[in-house]
Amino acid sequence: MLSHVVLADPVALTRALVDIESVSGNEAEITDAVEAALKAAPHLDVTRVGNTLVAATSLGRPQRVVLAGHLDTVPVAGNLPSRTEGNIMHGCGTSDMKSGAALALHLAVHAPAPKYDVTYLFYDCEEVESERNGLRKLAASHPELLAADFALLLEPTYGLVEAGCQGTMRAVVTTRGRRAHSARSWLGENAIHRAGEALARLRRYEARSVEIDGCVYREGLNAVKIGGGVAGNVIPDEAWIEVNFRFAPDRSEEQAHAHVREVFEGFEVAVTDSAPGALPGLTAPPAKEFLAAVGRPPQAKLGWTDVARFATLGIPALNFGPGDPNLAHTREEHVEIDKIEAGAETLRRWLVGGEC
Amino acid sequence: MLSHVVLADPVALTRALVDIESVSGNEAEITDAVEAALKAAPHLDVTRVGNTLVAATSLGRPQRVVLAGHLDTVPVAGNLPSRTEGNIMHGCGTSDMKSGAALALHLAVHAPAPKYDVTYLFYDCEEVESERNGLRKLAASHPELLAADFALLLEPTYGLVEAGCQGTMRAVVTTRGRRAHSARSWLGENAIHRAGEALARLRRYEARSVEIDGCVYREGLNAVKIGGGVAGNVIPDEAWIEVNFRFAPDRSEEQAHAHVREVFEGFEVAVTDSAPGALPGLTAPPAKEFLAAVGRPPQAKLGWTDVARFATLGIPALNFGPGDPNLAHTREEHVEIDKIEAGAETLRRWLVGGEC
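ok -> structure tokens follow
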């Protein structure tokens, strides 16, 4: 049970959530605790789907926003229970992202009359394969529960606003040749040498930097794996390069695929994996007011996050959370306590105009 | 037992040797049979070392030549016992190289007074790793038994003279970089892209063709394997290319290594495997007379054979045998009977000046 005292204090609440171990797949206990706290708030309609919770106000406001966070963590690395030293709270999930989830839960319980209608979302299995992701599943089964004008994902950004996200795709570029004994190499065609032509294109490739709503998205096209060869005395007849293209959100997935095929024109290209980017969506009125509450310019999110799932639903979304993204998934994971307090204050300023 | 009738007929003798299964490691029975035949010839001194036989004349001739062949075969592929259809004898070892060994054994028994002293050599484990090779072992333990002015290796050449052999070496070229998340690729250095520079050098590489004693040795420098990569979202910090350099016998192994290091200057290069080439050695008097007996110009041997082991001992050596090298190690292995007869006649013409 999360007590009233704990729910009233985002720092204590972070610590309480961290101390309920919730490695992906083991979220039942933490979800029960969060559900009980939400259900105790009479201004919220609470729906539970598996280990995903949706708690919504229904105040008839003209705009609705989502505050979202996942409750799962990567595997514990000898870093539980939490411990606090001065301004630092150590422990698995402190940064990614129980400090963010604590801000949402604190506001859910303590802000009965926010400026916008708010949908609070707590979900499971973000740290594992996309198939199990609670947000992905809810968007597929109950998209109506996610309807909103703007979404804020409380992933670690160290108190900055990170807008939208890059798209990502992988493709395998295959080259062919003809086998021959390497003592008579001129009778064959070397597929690995041919792969060198594809690598030359990657070396010459000039990646774009695209500014969207003041955020600069820097693209990248890279070989991430390579393989080929038959035996030490055979001219190889096949080689392959796996490439990863991180693209700015002004390209659709289809445009990104077409671009990669164009770069490797003349080669066999098979797309193996793809996820769209998300536009920063800074023009929605609640986004503008949120940026004003933060008081700092937004930055482009370089990487892929669940904001892209909101973008796919047509909902502009930003990343904002107290944790340091560079500490996520590390044994040394921690959060700065004053970042939790500052984050709570920013959200209050935005949602209720002051204390709550 | 190989009967007198069989020993007198190189074709029958080939068939008899083929029908004694002798996959590498299982040469005892065939060696026993060959040893008995050699020991029955009073003009030969026979030495057996393991499953390697040396049978030498001692006529006091001013020149000594070696006739050499291995008695082992690659694994049987449903192609034993032998069978004959018209001019074709089918079966494992017919081409590589029991037809060649039969020529040597026939002459050993039936040419008591050749023009040169002759050392007949029959050895084991040629088709497996160099460590087990009977010729290699004999050269190390009893080099005096191999002393000669010229050597003829009866490997399949389809009745042509193939002179000397290319050297071969392998090296691994490694490239290094710095890992980074592929969403922020500019923070890393891509080792696979760097490997593309090494491949560009291979594509630009112009291989030499070297004429030695009228034989043209065509070199080749090729990637035979490539690998690298960490994960689909990581800029790789290491990649490697295995290259195979086949070099003309005017380069020593050391010179070949230095050449490859020069081609890949600026990269890490580790030599993993190396064997010297063999000069054609066509100027030795017995070699000239052998070429006259064949009556056709020699060709460069493209590939590596045990002639290089003779070259290392300072003995010029040629390849000459009735089998078709392209059929070696195939399920369809066979030899043309008239090539066996023609080979026997050539050797007789050279060693005894006519019939024997």
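The domain at 167-275 of chain A is CATH 3.30.70.360 (Alpha-Beta Plaits).
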